Amino acid sequence: MPVRVMMGKFPAIIFIVCACVASSCGRGARLPEDLSRAESLLDSRPDSSLIILDSASYSESSGRYLYASYCLLRTFAEYNAYKPGIDDGMMNVGVDYFLKYGNRDRKAQAYYLRAVVREDNKSGNQADWANDLLLATKEVKGSGNHMLAAMINLRYAVVLNDRKWYDASLPYLEKGLEEAEKAGSLAFQVTALINLSHRALFLGDENKDYSEAIEYANRAAEISKGDDNDYARALYNLGACYSRNGQFDKALECASTAVRAQERLFREGKRKARVRYAVLADAFRKMNIPDSALFYAAKEMEASDLIAKLSGSQLSYIVYRDLLDDKENAVKYLTIHNEIKSQLEASQQNDRIIENSVEAGKADIRSSRSRILGTAVAAVLSLIVALYLIVRMFRRRLRNRDEAIERKDSEIGESKTLLHESESERSELRSVLMFKDKLVMSLQQNPRYLSDAEWGRLEKILDDVCNRFTERLKSSFPGLTAAELRIAVLLRFGFSGKQMAAMMGISPTSVTKGKQRLKARVASALPDGTSIDEFIATF
């Protein structure tokens, strides 16, 4: 039935429907005083938040919204207070409700909480945890809750850094630091600076320049002096930077102080993460003190996670090989190291990361469309009610024309918004798919000479993800040689000159000359002031 006919015949029904919609949109927006106080203390005093929640009495009979809020806040408080064995069942009550009915902040909290609690409880897998964090970053975009935005962006950046996806982690680190500064949270600022330092440390290996990493690490140490836990984290990271830069005495001093502080905080229950010993062990190794190096390497291997075991076994192998000339133990720890490395590679090269990231992207697109549609429906209903009160003052023809214009404008705006957001999501998915391929991940960490089959695979990835990249390039510049095409492929993936040299079996100087020849080949299409790297990256 046309809208104007409904207005003429059923004005009271339309008014009632709109009133119900407005009422339901506001339902549950305000928390009772006890839950509101508990939420305000979640970050600064989670133990006090738990005391308030313990004295509260909420159950399923209290109503779905109140009980779900209680479950979500209680799980958050237990996690922030380092309580072991958090109840998945209670968490799921809050998470499931707010993923379905919550606003964007609550949905972001729900995704984040499900990721970190399941990671702590070792339930699910790394791909699921990472995808929940990715979805949380999508929901928290544009949020006025700076603390929540900082926490979520930084946690996801840490996941990317752990996988050595440093290019992908940078925007999340920068966003996390920006939000932490707006929130006035020194702890999150320290976390952001430490991970920016970690990223700069890895990238500095290419030219042995660690000045940027040390600068970030010093900033983190400077602003964290008022908090023992943050200061210990910052000092440990600063020790790693000094060690890589050859300043072994400073590295030993920072790492020793950090480890002692971490051990004390862990004993007092003020530190949730395990104590790290790798930097201290490496500092003793570089100072030629093998007994201490082996002692702390063994403590590093006692950890449950594979990355720590890998570091500890590698340090033990190097000490026995280089400092003690003990071939038997060197072989023993090399074998252990290789076994752990194989386990780690198998866990990190999980195909589900790609599949789940694609599904996450699709879910985000669907969610965006639903939000736009819901907003449009609410706006149209409100407009109909307002127009109904004034249309009797105007002639029927003028009224119908105005309504038609309004609807067309709304449809055009919706179409443009949907088109822009869909294109943005497709671009992000293409980037994710490119850099999560097993071969690409392997080459980013350990570049090596490529076979013809592997070259073919890289070209196929680009053709599938980047709209027939190699076909378009060869068609636009038919004079390209095979070597120039391979350089273009590696540039499109963002590999460094040193990595490209290893994969092509030539010297870095030859790579530079090859890039110059490629630039000359495409000069006719190259805008003034644009480098060959920029041109290929956007082709």
Question: What does this protein look like?
Answer:
By secondary structure, the chain is mainly alpha-helical. Helices cover 78% and strands 0% of the residues. It has four domains: 31-101; 122-348, Tetratricopeptide repeat domain (Serine Threonine Protein Phosphatase 5, Tetratricopeptide repeat, Alpha Horseshoe); 352-435; 450-537, Arc Repressor Mutant, subunit A, CATH 1.10.10. It has helices at residues 3-9, 11-26, 33-40, 46-55, 64-80, 88-101, 104-121, 126-139, 146-162, 166-183, 186-203, 211-223, 228-244, 248-267, 278-286, 290-301, 306-323, 327-348, 351-390, 396-435, 438-445, 452-465, 469-476, 482-493, 497-504, 508-521, 532-537. Helix 3 (33-40) packs antiparallel against helix 4, helix 8 runs antiparallel to helix 9 (146-162) and helix 11 packs antiparallel against helix 12. The longest helix is centred in the last third of the chain and has 40 residues, at 351-390.
Secondary-structure blueprint of this entry?
Elements: H1 3-9, H2 11-26, H3 33-40, H4 46-55, H5 64-80, H6 88-101, H7 104-121, H8 126-139, H9 146-162, H10 166-183, H11 186-203, H12 211-223, H13 228-244, H14 248-267, H15 278-286, H16 290-301, H17 306-323, H18 327-348, H19 351-390, H20 396-435, H21 438-445, H22 452-465, H23 469-476, H24 482-493, H25 497-504, H26 508-521, H27 532-537
